[in-house]
Amino acid sequence: MVKHTKLAIPQIVAEDARLGPDPVRLSVELRLHVDDADLAAATPAQRKRRKKPSRAELVELAGKIYDARRLRDKLISDEIFGEPAWDILLACYCLPARGEILTVTSLSLVSAVPQSTGFRWQQTLTERGYLERGSKGADQRIVPIQLTEVGRELIEGYLTRLLKCAEPVLNCAIDL
User: Fold this and answer.
1) What is the per-residue pLDDT across 108-129, written as a single tens digit (0 to 9) for each?
2) Quick one: pLDDT band at residue 25, thresholds 50, 70, 90?
3) How far apart are CA 60 and CA 78, in angstroms?
4) Count of Cβ atoms closer than 10 Å to residue 7 Cβ
5) Which of 27, 30, 48, 73 could form a disulfide with 78 if both were Cys (CB 3.0 to 4.6 A apart)?
6) Contact at 8 Å (CB) between 120 and 140?
7) E strand segments, the chain
């Protein structure tokens, strides 16, 4: 007999109505709750295999992806690759866990994108609600930047799914 759990989908919709419409966030949350329903219907062995990874595991995976992208840029001309938005979001997710304080200026550098491109994408990602600028400290020239909760949820949702389907491949590729 399959045990069904009641999903809190109306609560998700209410939250989005309060925060303003964000179909991407709603879609990710809905998919996560569908995963929860699948998990509730799974056998104990299936549940063990499908447990959600911890934030530390996701940060570790993001760090491996970040390091692999920087290695690729060193080994193969980085001029033929380009995903500035992804590199910026990935850096904002994994580098603070390594003790790096990201600023508007340093984020372009660690994301391996030109300053003008980095500033443009930071602005776009901020407007979409994925990044936020912090308050300036004693040095008015330094503006910290970080993921918003919405940005963090999107990255973690993606990494969770990636980990479920590609962990053996990623571990093999990183060890090369």
Assistant:
1) 999 888 999 999 999 999 999 9
2) low
3) 24
4) 14
5) 73
6) no
7) 131-133, 145-147
What range defines the domain where residue 1 resides? 1-51
* 111's tokens: 């994301």
32 and 72, same domain (yes or no)? no
pLDDT of residue 1: 42
Cα–Cα distance measured from residue 82 to residue 73, given in angstroms and rounded to the nearest whole number: 10
The answer to whether residues 65 and 44 belong to one domain is no
Of residues 90 and 37, more confidence is placed in 90
Residues 65 and 113 in one domain: yes
CATH of the domain at 78: 1.10.10.10
Same-domain status, 23 and 102: no
Structure-block tokens of residue 57: 């595991």
* Amino acid in position 82: G
Return d(Cα 45, Cα 43) in angstroms, integer.
5
Contact between 24 and 154 (Cβ < 8 Å): yes
Hunting for tokens 């308050």 — which residue is that? 135
